[in-house]
Design a protein that fits this description.
Blueprint (H helix, E strand, L loop, with lengths): L1 H4 L2 E6 L4 H13 L4 E7 L2 H15 L3 E7 L5 H9 L10 E4 L15 H27 L6 E7 L12 H20 L4 E9 L5 H5 L5 H7 L8 H12 L9 E4 L6
Parallel strand pairs: 1-2, 1-4, 2-3, 4-5, 5-6, 6-7
Helix pairs in contact: 2-3, 2-9, 4-5, 5-6
The protein binds NADPH dihydro-nicotinamide-adenine-dinucleotide phosphate.
Length: 257
């Protein structure tokens, strides 16, 4: 499994915490001798700490490049691709993980700004990242090669009251991912969606405006997943034989309804 990742260049968006950080760590552990990791998020200082942790854990076989990137800003995405150092330009795997939720509110009360931030990040950001990286994949033989791994959510399949906009963003990710996979059918570019249920990250508390006791009350009785649980599946999907696409996966804790 690890052998198939050797020599690859992997981009993870939202790598400063939660699932993205775990995913970066899991890629590094899976191919500690020869891997290039590009970690992106808005908090560059936190990204640098993640990069240092990875180097400390696996050593110098993994090259790590932390890059400040707000995926909701198309200009930053264009600059990101054009200013990558030469040795990081040949990207093989894009993990579109960056995402957020802005509070819990009934549809009529949702602030226009919150709606915009959620769509700009979770949907437009993911699409713009994909559009920016696809030309790199398409230059390769047999119509193109590379992996696009999108982190959706159970919320994109089972919308819940108070989460209409977040759920709508994740449903949009799902439709985009499905259509893109079909568009690229004649290539070796794999388009993969992984939909987590509840995962213990910064996200779970943000959803309740930082009120941890409220978050705990809603999730009572459910032992959440960890970022590592999702990361293992991401790396598993990326390290299959080239002809195998783990197209669409839902992962949730045993007791989550
Ligand atoms: P975290 O809040 O821990 O991580 C979110 C990451 O996204 C951070 O690294 C954050 O970095 C980054 N991010 C947010 N906005 C932007 C932006 N505009 N540009 C670049 N990076 C951004 O939450 P999770 O790890 O839980 O979330 C990761 C993904 O998993 C999200 O897409 C989320 O919707 C999805 N998900 C999470 C679930 C859960 O229960 N936790 C369940 C289902 C899906 P920074 O702030 O430094 O920019």
């Amino acid at each position: 499994m690890a052998k198939r990742l050797e020599g690859k260049t992997v981009v993870v968006t939202g790598a400063s915490s939660g699932i993205g950080k775990s995913t970066a760590q899991e890629f590094a552990r899976s191919s500690p001798k020869n891997l290039k990791l590009i970690l992106t998020a808005r908090r560059i200082d936190t990204l640098k700490e993640v990069a240092a942790e990875i180097k400390q854990e696996v050593g110098d076989g993994v090259q790590v490049l932390p890059v400040k990137l707000d995926v909701s800003n198309p200009e930053e995405i264009n600059n990101f691709v054009s200013s990558l150092p030469e040795e990081f330009k040949e990207i093989d795997v894009l993990v579109n993980n960056a995402g957020l939720v802005k509070g819990v509110a009934q549809a009529p009360e949702i602030a226009t700004e919150d709606l915009k931030v959620m769509f700009d990040t979770n949907v437009t950001g993911l699409i713009n990242m994909t559009q920016a990286i696809l030309p790199i994949f398409k230059k390769r033989s047999e119509g193109g090669r590379g992996d696009i791994i999108n982190i959706g959510s159970i919320a994109g399949r089972e919308p819940y009251p108070g989460g209409s906009i977040y759920c709508a963003t994740k449903a949009a990710v799902r439709s985009f991912t499905d259509a893109l996979r079909k568009e690229l059918i004649a290539t070796r570019i794999r388009v993969i969606e992984i939909d987590p249920g509840q995962v213990e990250t910064e996200f779970s508390v943000v959803r309740f405006y930082g009120d941890k006791s409220k978050a705990d009350a809603v999730y009572k009785g459910v032992e959440p997943l960890t970022g590592d649980d999702i990361a293992e599946v991401v790396v598993f999907a990326a390290s299959r034989r080239e002809n195998v696409v783990i197209a669409d996966t839902l992962i949730f804790p045993s007791h989550q309804a």
